[in-house]
Amino acid sequence: PLRKRCCLLVYKGTSSVCVATVGFLLFLGLSLFYLPDPSAPEPAVSEESSHVTLLLIWAHPFERYRKLPNCSALFQIHKCTLTDDRRAYPQADAVIIHHRDVAIGRAELPTEPRPGAQKWIWMNYESPTHTPALWLFEGVFNLTLSYRTDSDIFLPYGYLIPRVGTAKSLQNRYAHPLHKPSRSNVIRPRFVAWVISNWSESHARVAFYYKLRRYINVDVFGRAGLPLPEGRGSVVRLLGRYQFYLALENSQHTDYITEKLWNAVKAGAVPVVLGPPRKNYERFLPPEAFIHVDDFPTVRGLARYLRMLRRNPDRLRRHLEWREGYSLHQTAFWAEHYCTACRAVRRTRGKTDWFTW
Ligand SMILES: *[C@@H]1O[C@H](CO)[C@@H](O)[C@H](O)[C@H]1NC(C)=O
Ligand SMILES: *[C@@H]1O[C@H](CO)[C@@H](O)[C@H](O)[C@H]1NC(C)=O
Ligand SMILES: *[C@@H]1O[C@H](CO)[C@@H](O)[C@H](O)[C@H]1NC(C)=O
After folding, report:
1. What is the mean pLDDT of each run of 10 residues along the chain (357 residues)?
2. Whose CA is nearest to atom 12 of ligand 3?
3. Start and end residues for every CATH 3.40.50.11660 domain found in the chain
4. Does CATH number 3.40.50.11660 belong to domain 175-329?
5. Among all residues, which ones are annotated catalytic?
6. How many whole angstroms from its chain centre is CA 200?
7. Residue 227 contacts by C-beta under 8 Å, 6 or more apart in sequence?
8. Is the CB of 130 under 6 A from ligand 2?
């Protein structure tokens, strides 16, 4: 078997002697987008095996307890048992460890030596800017689970599923069909919204907002602005009244595209994005599905474009027509992460490390 050390420093995005597992691009119908593991064909052999994989959740992320999911019922991932009972450590096939909690000392790593074939999975959904003390864990983990396409177990915040020519299995319960607006519904009552919970003057997104508001009105929601409506799905409902949504990431890194973007997509507001470069977004969305702040040499140019679109429904529709062919899948934190990890462990059982794709 091929031995490949799990390399966390690659996560920093700097040059490194280790070679990360190359993200796999799935050609599905006309889609050139990155789709996570669920779309990969199931190898028949592993499913036949009667062994039940036991995955230990070492600590609930951010110390917030959540009931563990039934992977079979929710994701059709069978023969996976999840537990958060640490007494199961000696029997666990794998242990999933959330980076932030061990990095800031909220939880300790399990004690060594680890049981023979057990795999430790490093799970992280923050960007490198907000991922402290990475160096502590170099050479400790066997598999990485993150939103980065070069993780061993890749699960983004969300992804599009093409509706035509797609296997039934992909039309799962978390897939939300998207539609283009009817002719009379292209123009929405409100203009631009931004939801911001962590306001920091050091963030590029705040500097961008200061410039943008010189030219257009932005309705700001969250701690620093208007109160956010409460309750499940209420943010998406709010965005549903807006034409544009500022999907501005807290820091700019490869593949770091969060629920901010997908909430806008779900609500049918055209996302104005600040994050990794346009090319990176285009691995996840059609080029016309979003407006990138780098598309314009100046913020003033961008503001002018947004105002122009609002007066030209036909032009605006170009940013919305693509929706007709897709469903949106937003990943369920953390249920889906645990189940996806468990399946990955099943598939790599008996192997020292991940096989190349
Ligand atoms: C999980 O769901 C499956 C299918 O719905 C069911 O047969 C099984 O009993 C459930 N397992 C547990 C532990 O609840
Ligand atoms: C908010 O942003 C600051 C500055 O980047 C960062 O240090 C802090 O960890 C962030 N807080 C949260 C809750 O993300
Ligand atoms: C997991 O990684 C540790 C540390 O590098 C290593 O000692 C162990 O053999 C690996 N286990 C498996 C099953 O690959």
Report:
1. 54 43 34 62 52 96 97 94 98 97 94 94 97 92 96 96 69 85 95 95 96 98 90 93 98 97 98 98 97 98 98 97 95 96 87 44
2. 352
3. 175-329
4. yes
5. 126
6. 22
7. 221
8. yes
